[in-house]
Amino acid sequence: MEELPTQMKQLYKEAKEIILNNEDIKIYSHNDCDGISSGAILSIIMDRLGKDYEIEFVSLDKLEDLQLTHKLTIFSDLGSGQPVEKYATEDSEIIILDHHPPLRDLNYRDTKNFKFLEINPMHFGINGSYYICGGGLCYYLAKEFGYDDLSWIGVLSAVGDMQNTHTGKMEGLNKLILNDAIKGRYVKKIGDLSIYGRETRPLFVALSYFSDVTLPITNSKTECIALLNELNIPKTTDDHYTTLSDLTKPEKSRLFSALVKMLSREVPGKYVEYIPKLVAADSYEFLQEEDHTFLRDASEFSTAMNACARNKEEMVALKILKGNRSDALDELEYISRNHRRYLALKIQEVQESHAIVEMNNIQYFDGSGIRSEVVGTITGMVLSYGNWRKPIIGFTQVSEDNDDLKISLRCSRLLAYDGVHFGNIIREVAQDLGGNGGGHAVACGAYIPKECKEEFLKTFDEKLEGKL
């Protein structure tokens, strides 16, 4: 714990004492990979301590009017940006472990008549988008208890939260968590190409999904096969299609050079220096998982966790993270298969209906009929059918019972180098319209009243004038 700021270390010591002195505990965690990873770490801590506790995974919109029904309530990967203490009484005890921009300052706890403890890296000048996420914060709590073996879940949460996308490597406190995981022989770091699906996806298929910049190979398996043939990279290896993990170093080098050359022809000059960061990145293998399975690679593992979250099966993901490799793994494969099928169907609908509409600085599509839990995933995947130079926004109805809008934004990683933080902008615009939102520089979302759609799009577009 010596690498943490002094005051942050003290907060962890206090959090440990609060937990040790409580038996009536409720955990609320965000319903995405980072949130599920955070919840898993907290759940394992409680199990090992023999605590009586409940855990629930929720979306941000569920926190506005949350009743606190337990003596101690712990919020992980959420809570900093929401008024979760609204209904606290003098007997309430609250711990928040969150990396999103906080509503409250570090001294807020001194103004309350109940026990309130918030650990947020931004209070200490630590970047919460790239240096540590919710799972990392929870890992440091586990480390306070001596549970260093949970470091691999901290790595998974960082990958799932896209903390490594800025440079392709772990930075800040994430790097220190990775070092713990490597030292404990839970994780292996590999210098690799930044192509999703390194363990299970045929390379010619994986390449076709490249979407940060629209290239000749984007959405074209034929062009991808032609490129691999040109580079003398076999389509098959042994008894399976060649995956990224099968490539030799010379083969990876040839593919890297080809992609850099291809990208250099497509991007404006101001982005050329960032091209290598789009193509090369560290990959992380979980050494206790089997080769050529989707749990071996951190990116694929995180996608499986998100598939559970998007299908309201967070408890299946929790079982997997806590070591269940029998029944839960079969459930996970079933969920993932149906999830992929649903995504493919909805992406095809967006593509065939030519639903993407361009404005001056943004593009958007009406995702009516798409489940709100997956509109963000689909928004990212249809970017390749639009203009990569602009962020893309997708929106759909929150639920059958709530006709307000869930909005998701995704963009090319290159746009992050313009210095624009879309998560901050989307929060500002949504709040001005009576909604809420937030997220990361290149992936974020919001909830707004349904009648504000046009005003939201117009205002957001204007906010970006001259910034891209």
Q: Note the beta-strand portion.
A: 15-25%
The major beta sheet can be summarized as: 6 strands, mixed
As residue ranges, the low-confidence spans are: none
The neighbouring-strand order within the major sheet is 10-11-12-13-15-14
Counting DSSP H or I runs of 4 or more residues, the number of helices is 15
Rg over CA atoms, rounded to whole Å, is 22 Å
Structure summary, number of beta strands: 15
Question: Residue share in helices?
Answer: 25-40%
Structural class: alpha/beta
Distance between the termini: 40 Å
Any idea what the shape is?
A: globular
Structure description:
The protein has 468 residues and is of the alpha/beta class. The chain is built from 15 helices and 15 strands. The strands form four sheets. The protein has a six-stranded mixed β-sheet, with helices on both faces. The protein has a five-stranded parallel β-sheet with strand order 2-1-3-4-5. It has a two-stranded antiparallel ribbon with strand order 6-9. Strand 11, helix 13 and strand 12 form a beta-alpha-beta unit. Helix 3 packs antiparallel against helix 4, helix 4 packs across helix 5 and helix 12 packs across helix 13. The longest helix is centred in the C-terminal third of the chain and has 26 residues. It is globular and about 70 Å long. The relative contact order is 0.09. The mean pLDDT is 94.
